[in-house]
Amino acid sequence: MKLKKKDIFFQTLENMADTVVQAADYFATHVSNLQDITVFANDMKKFESQCDEYTHTIIKELNKTFITPIERDDIMELTTTLDDVLDGLEATASRFYMYQLTQPDEYIVQFADILRLSAYEIQKAIHLLSQKKLLALREHTIRLNELENQGDEVLRFCIKNLFATVTDPIELIKRKEIYERLETTTDACEDVANMLESIIMRNS
Asked: Which Pfam families does UniProt cross-reference here (predicted)?
């Protein structure tokens, strides 16, 4: 019996989600013990380029496909939000390089853990989407919302701590931007969840 070939849109979205997991994993593993920021930033750039390729595949396929498995706009929106998560991780890694920040602190490590957990939730959700198990998706979107709330809390703590303990204004600017970028990336993960929620509503 020949296995039915997976829909190109779902397959590519799964590939994107898998890349987000690899990137978030790599980010979290390396950020807690940064050996070489140049290698770190370059490797994160490779993940981001890979994700861009998947985005181009989806745009190309949307332009030539008449019938899509879910609404065209939903496919495009989901692709964009997934891409935003990887862009956020890569932009943070490039800041480490630009600012020569070799000593990430406990807050950056906490953000990295939240983002890694979020990436796994996204991956599970996208794989369920391609199996059309829409209602099973919900536990993952709820979890993504909870993780984003944790990100908000970490941001509150670390900004408060930053202004209380760091006196060098340059160092303060660097760290504040990195914290905010990381928190924006947790927001991007929640955007994926919100997009999936609207897909559930429209299709179930």
From this structure: PhoU_div
Return the amino acid letter for 61.
E
| pTM (two decimals) | 0.94
What is the chain's alpha carbon radius of gyration, rounded to the nearest angstrom? Answer: 18
Contact criterion met (CB below 8 Å) for 12 and 54: yes
- Other CB atoms within a 10 A radius of the CB of residue 53 amount to 12
- Alpha-helical runs (H) found in the chain: 8-31, 37-64, 72-98, 106-130, 138-165, 169-203
Q: Report the CATH number that the domain containing residue 111 is assigned in CATH.
A: 1.20.58.220
- pLDDT tens string 130-168: 999 999 999 999 999 999 999 999 999 999 999 999 999
- The answer to the question of residue 3 being in a domain is no
Domain-located, residue 166: yes
List helix spans (H) across 131-168: 138-165
State the total domains in the chain: 1
Please tell me the distance from the alpha carbon of residue 66 to that of residue 72, in angstroms, as a whole number: 10
